[in-house]
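Data card: per-record layout.
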Amino acid sequence: MAKTNRERLIRQSVQGKVHHPLGNDFRVERDGEPRILPATGGICYNVKVGDPAFGWEGDHIEPGVSVRNEEVRENQAFTALSCIGNEAIVVSGDAKGDRGYVTGKHGGIDHVLVYFDDETLNALAIDDKIMVRAHGQGLKLNAYPEIKVMNIDPDLFDRIQIEEKEGRLIVPVAAEVPAVMMASGLGARHAYSGDFDIMTGDKAGIEASGIDQLRFGDLVLLKDMDCAYGYDYRPGAVSIGVIVHSDCIKMGHGPGVTVILTSRDGKIDGLISEGANIKDIIENA
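The structure for this 285-residue chain is written out next.
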């Protein structure tokens, strides 16, 4: 296990509300067909972390519960400080006291995505308050100062079976994604909130690489992507992220990836592993 500075991290409360889905405009598919479909927001009862990210009749579907703070600056803190794996607690409504965990962050709509079990989902309502015990930003690898860590709870990070070999990290992943497939989200100010998308218009390419088999919560390796201060193409760089939302019907979009590790010098290798999914890692701890 790679040693970190976890004992120096701050644990802090941040909070939002279950956010109602927005809009009713047509969404235009890649072939030009306009569709009215479920999309971001609300409580998604039948799509959860661990489920397939492809094949749903929807666009940018967010598994579980979508949470946002309607005060803009507070939401900026909510989305930046919440980390994948953080404990989430319902603090109002019929499900008050129930607990789940953060599964990702979705840029643009600026949601934090949270897993709860079925009993809690059925008790939740729009506008119920969700508090997250934010813990993880500032995490560093003591022996690898050139590798940046972000957006992940230190307990979850420690449970990932990361190996060290000759000054490199070997990280279990479900798939490897070439930089040419990364699109929507490029140009963001930083990678500490939100995500960016894997383009899925190249059906042959995603099938050949196994990307079409990805699940919500899967760890993926992004080739030639430097995510230290945003999202940038850099030959030789490597980043690791988590699949947070579903495939999309729109051009330039696809499953969203929230970054957890990035190495400008490429000191990360991926090892294709069947259990490289945060749900499996958390439940099998």
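Known properties of this structure: The domain at 147-283 is CATH 2.102.30.10 (tm1086 (SG structure) fold). The helical segments are 72-81, 118-123, 154-159, 203-209, 278-283.

See the next section for split statistics.
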